[in-house]
Amino acid sequence: MWLNRKFRLTRSTDFKRVRRSGKSYAHPLVVLIALPNHSLHTHFGIAASRSVGSAVQRNRAKRMLREALRPLLPEVQPGWDVVLLSRAPIVQAHLDQVQEGLRSCLRRADLLRLPYGH
User: Exposure string (b/e) for 40-70, b if CB count within 10 Å is 16 or more?
Assistant: First the structure.
């Protein structure tokens, strides 16, 4: 299950709105910024600034974030706009480290559903 285009933040105005008004949660590899959107879906936007490195490294960082997010999507609460910003150390990180950092941010932002039975 990957993000349909309708479940992505694509316009720079959306990114700016979330970055300006959202609450951020930092990890050494990724920064998560979340803002309620009052819809039935959670929309994700992924970005990597020039501080991450060259275009090749920035694209790799974004691919790693997308891949780390994929197995977590079914657990994510609906009704949020989320921007994920990669940080420079992500270039040397392994996928499982990125996924753990992302899970940590989602948990602190209270965006993960509780497993059944809890």
Answer: eebbbbbbbeeebbeeebbebbbebbeebbe
Across all residues in the chain, what is the average pLDDT? 91
Please name the residues in contact with 32: beta carbons below 8 A apart, sequence gap of 6 or more: 24, 25, 26, 82, 83, 84, 85, 102, 105, 106, 109
Q: Which residue shows structure tokens 């039975």?
A: 117
Enter the pTM of the model.
Answer: 0.91
pLDDT digits (tens, 9 = 90+) for 32-54: 999 999 889 899 999 999 999 99
Name the β-bridge partners of 34: 23, 82
